[in-house]
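Journal club side-thread
Mid-discussion, someone asked how the predicted structure for our own chain would compare to the paper's figures. Pasting it here so we can look after the session.
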Amino acid sequence: MLRSIGVLAMAGAIGGILAAALAAPVVTGAGLSAKNVATTFVDLPPAPREEPLSQVTRLLDRNGKQFAQFYEANRTTVRLDQVAPVMRKAIVAIEDARFYEHGGLDVKGTIRALLTNTQAGGIKQGGSSLTQQLVKNILVEGARSDAERDRARAPNLARKITELRYALAMEEKYRKDEILEKYLNIAYFGAGAHGVEAAARRFFSTTAARLTLTQAATLAGAVRMPYSTDPSLGDRHLDRLRQRRDIVLDRMAGVGAISPQEATAAKRTGLDLKLHPEPGGCAQSDYPFYCYYVQRELLTNPAFGDTAAKRQARMSTGGLVIRTSLDPVAQRAAEHAIQRRVHPDDTQVAAEAMVQPGTGRIMAMAASKRFGRNPGNKKNGARTTFNLPADMTHGGGMGFQAGSTFKVFTLATALGQGWRFGDGFQTPGELSPDQGYRDCRGRRVNDPRTTIYNASGEGTGGPHSLETGTWKSVNIFYMMLERKVGLCNVVTTAKALGIARADGTPLREVPTFTLGANEMDPVTVAAAFAAFAARGRYCRPLAIVEITGRVGERTRVPPACEQAIDRPVADAVNWVLGGVFTEGTMRGQSIGRPAAGKTGTNNGYTSAWFAGYTPDLAAAVSVGDIRGAYRYPLQNVQIGDEYYGSVQGASLPGPIWVDSMEEALRDIAPSGFPGPDMARFGGGYTPGLKEALEAEAKAKARDEHGRPARDRRRKFDHRKRFTFMEPWNRRDVREPRHRRDAQERRPGAALEPGRPEDVREPRRPADVREPRRPEGVREPRRPDDVMGPRRPRDLLEPRHRRERISRHFR
């Protein structure tokens, strides 16, 4: 009895001496009295401020499968009952064996550390209790400046006093198990793993609840020296980690947590690491462009925080589970379609976005380049840090001019003003927008210095109706239609359908607005076209469906929609745009179900687009040169495995759209659009249109490709007897230029080596010609060195010189 009292008295004396010794450097230096020294550990401060720990934010697709994660610290907090008991024993044994016995101050451990540090003249040995270590981590995590962070790590006795006072306050506030839980979640284990759950996943590809004895000892050993025992850094680090594991096992046996036999058996085993990479950031995601869009949405959308600072704080602390609308089937479809036609190394880039009509949910975002930085941080390469399918707000670039896809807004405006199917007017072969154009401020924006022509393959002057002008994408017709319905009205329609420039600046309200003079991104265009599929209901593009917070609270993100145009008008637009596939620029390209859309080819072939939709899905595809659309137009370019004299909306973006939509909708039953109200929209008339269409049909019938083969042979039968063809009688001189070019491209048209320049092989009869190549099979490209000789000199002469030669020989 007396002996016990003596022991207690001695412990109390030691504790008092220790308290005074520890406080002396701070207290006496401040000139405080002995009474204040005594109250240093009586008048305790409140427990330290605890900021929410940074955790991993995870992104899920529409099926609930994770496809990306980003974080400032790779951490997932867990409850203590979600940590294996053997892990709890291991960390307590090695870090603070008397954790459940003391009140925040381990007297023996602290005295030992104090003596060692006094002899060394600095901090050389840790004697901190587990609670003190928790305090240190809290102060570091919660530091709001570098100065605060440095003070929390300063190797001096003043910091130790601060930690000890806070530790005593923590012991008064929390139970022991609560303190242990906080410590296991905040401690750094190395290899980028913060907290025991992340460490279990990183080191052993398991969870904290399933850790074994050897695994628990390994993690507990890593806490003291997380950098020198990082297993991802090489063999030397692995050796240190194994040594630390064995020390923990011996310590556990020493305090009775396990038997000596268990410790010996465990030390005979290897580390058995199963390092699991924990990618962080969108560059390592399976769908990086979509991931980047979501990340930027969280930082820029006021719905996720009133201020930018609040949104950034929410992003930094993380711990969110974000369910998105990404459809893996549609995503793969878009990626496959682009990869088949555009290579990552091409400077020409293709991008596609898919949007669900009626909700605005983004189903897919894909691009021809990979996301990330190029080796050596080069500007051009197979990678890009621009979110090519998105606008600048969501990490994209300047975008590309949308071209003739904008004609749909003029069409919708006209139909809304009472125009009918068949209504139209006579158009000239060229047009100068020198009068009749006013922007929404009422200012004249005429441009008399500009001359508008119809692009190749889009028709010439003559009568056109709403249908033919759309199907043939006649520029001049739509410039005149825009003037008739009002430029500002067209702009208003476009804005109602969500149209905004990719760079965030105001729309350019100019006469060529209907020709797509504004730079756009695929997400915005796809969402606008999706509104027509939804019968005029426009929905803001939306990638986030639901957010689950750190403590499990769920927040649904509903679609933001409004009726932008009348449903009958949208039905009428759908009817006209459906003809683009059957009668217009996309004729011959079908997805096997009702669809509508519009090609877009820009002036000078600076970019090309296709935007289209079905009732179930809308998509937009853009193609342009990432180095600059104007400096590098899409002419005479090799993209992927194909050579293009010029890239038009139907030649590259259109096929990408067709392939992606076919694959994306493969498991969805086809559905059609409601028919238009013919009582309202039928019965239009365009003077001279019927006669022009009949004449056009007859011209096609007279064309060489449409004329019977017997008639074609009869026309040129008299030439068969000529072996030497004089210039005035040679077919390649008499035929139009496009026919001459086609003749020269034929393999048999090249002169054989050694044959005189003006001697060609007589034309073969029709019955011995080469068989026609099957439809859809292309002729293989020939290398430049076997392309044959240049055309004869007289064909290289200007036209007036050729005509003079012809008159000379008549």
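Post-session note: The two ends are 141 Å apart (CA to CA).
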